[in-house]
Design a protein that fits this description.
With 70 residues, this protein is mostly helical. The chain has two helices and no strands. The longest helix is centred in the last third of the chain and has 36 residues. It is rod-shaped, with a radius of gyration of 18 Å. It starts with a helix and ends with a helix. The mean pLDDT is 88.
Length: 70
């Protein structure tokens, strides 16, 4: 279960790479494909916050279940 805590940070790494890729494509006047990289970067940031929110919910639910069993 510990790998689930690590994978959310992979989304931030992917987002950073995709923002960099979008920025370099945007500065290159011959390339028009920066939108795809930008959309993927925004999606990766969204997934990071989505995973963080649900990880907190699941942790809270587990704590409540353990306190009920005690």
């Amino acid at each position: 279960m510990n790998y689930l805590n690590i994978t959310k940070y992979v989304y931030l790494v992917v987002a950073g790479f995709m923002f960099y890729d979008a920025f370099t494509k945007w500065n290159d006047s011959t390339s028009d494909g920066f939108w795809l990289s930008f959309i993927l970067a925004v999606s990766a940031v969204f997934l990071y916050f989505f995973r963080s929110r649900f990880a907190k919910k699941f942790a809270e639910r587990d704590r409540q279940e353990k306190s009920k069993q005690s």
